[in-house]
Amino acid sequence: MGYSLWLLPPTSSKIATSLTSIIKSFGCSFAPHVTIVSKIPLTTSIEDIKSSLNTYFANHSLPDVHIKTLETGSEFFKRIFVRCKKTDSLVSLARFSKQTFVNNDEDINKWTNEYDPHISLIYAEKKDCNDEELINQIDLSTLINKTWQGGKIQLVDTSGKLSEWKTVLEFDISK
Predict the structure, then answer these.
(1) Can you provide one Gene Ontology molecular function annotated for this UniProt record (predicted)?
(2) Full-model pTM
(3) What confidence tens digit (pLDDT) does each residue in 10-28 have?
């Protein structure tokens, strides 16, 4: 799959604590994040990625994340998740990242329209639990309508199995 670029909430924020707690209670070990873009080739220089992102953030507002709803789905990464609003700042970062780091012929306007920012709480690989029981454990007041700005960027090597994913770059973007 390559690298995936993730946006994480600020480490010490209440929303980070709530999301981390829920994800761990579901038996998962990934960091709470909004995927900005995936399928970045592993041949892409990590230093070039960081430099490009630093330049981007020097000239653009920090991404705003607004959690809207709790949802379930059938896709691997969308078993139980919270959907986020497509804020201009989040879409701008995603579009920049797609154009800069994922060189393919995909129609960028179509991709941008289909971009679906969300935060997964559990992936479909966990088969030994009941979704309804898990959902009933969630205190929605700690998630729905919560927001954050900035946070951390993580670049994760997602080319292997989930248990082999490795963070190769992490830095704060809060101002």
Answers:
(1) 2',3'-cyclic-nucleotide 3'-phosphodiesterase activity
(2) 0.93
(3) 988 999 999 999 999 988 8
